[in-house]
């Protein structure tokens, strides 16, 4: 059981790193032409797209938003999941 929970914890941590890399790539012009950047987009988009849809449906959403807050919310959700996994490992 410990190894399964540890694997889940490492997976969640890897997702955090990938989302952080995606945020940093968004600051670089024309970075998405790179195959590495396309890989990062493919991995992180299934996580961020549903969060974006929820933000658009909320009172904070709507077209014309300049900032994308979905990575921040994803970080918070991943941290909550990591905390739950850590509590199960104890």
Automatic annotation (TrEMBL):
GO terms for cellular component: membrane. Keywords: Membrane, Transmembrane, Transmembrane helix. Pfam families: CCB3_YggT. The chain crosses the membrane at residues 7-28, 69-89. The keyword Phosphoprotein does not apply. The keyword Ligase does not apply. Belongs to the YggT family. This is YggT family protein. It comes from Vallitalea guaymasensis.
